[in-house]
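Attaching the record inline, Q. Sequence:
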Amino acid sequence: MIVITAPTGNIGRQLLPLLLELAPSHGEALRVVVRDPARLPDGVRERVEVITGSHGDAEVVDRAFEGADAVFWLAPPDASLTPEDAFPGFTRPAAKALAAHGVGHVVGVSALGRGTAVAGRAGLVTASLAADDVIAESGVAYRALANPSFFENLLEEAESIREKGVFTDTADADLKAPRVAVADIAAVAAGLLLDRSWTGNDSVPILGPQDLSPHDLARIMTEQFGRPVRYERQSLAALHTDLIGYGVNEEFAQGLVDMKRAKDEGLDAGVTRTPDTASPTTFEEWCARVLKPAVLS
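Structure, as predicted:
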């Protein structure tokens, strides 16, 4: 039995179809934990066991992990909470349930940065790494998927790109950094959940095929869309002000700002890209398949 948390989120909705396709040949049943089962794709509810509720709730995870062999874990970045409550706090009931039910393997969504000089002051990433420790201390075999920024983050900029030809972030325009497609993260997660020959606790970096700067992204989008796209750098202070204006929790907003600052200071640069840490989807491929339709619609 494999349990999937957050099956309707960015990664979960890519992972679930993969497991629905592959799990039967491995003799695996699937169980999902979801707040609103109506958000599951048509036809899925008949093929999985559904546990309704939040996977941050002790009673819900106690039911969800009973009889489970493996769990896909994702703590949703709830901007109404503090980083402590959103990541390690949210994870603690699950860690207790994992231990109580003797779950053997967990694959979790995490971030790059462990072991770098800035890991302890990286805001949301620091909190995410703390959540990894909570799971690892439960006694399970654990693999933390250590991710950089997602290509999919640019979907939040689709309207601005469409209307003004501009996308914004806080990174230095020439800073090259790893970036990854969510589908590649889901593929790695599926492989680990289905082949559980691994033991102990470790990170699995997923770095994409190449490092790209904001200027690189703008150039590629310009080529893909056939219209100019440029990058505008936002200050961290302006980002903080915007987040507070959107109603984001003050500590969460500061955690996001601290994460952005740490990325500029090398948070994502601590792992070397190798055939094992690279993932296949290029930004050009993702842009053509996902972002271009969103921008030009």
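The two ends are 40 Å apart (CA to CA). The longest strand covers residues 105-111.

More tomorrow.
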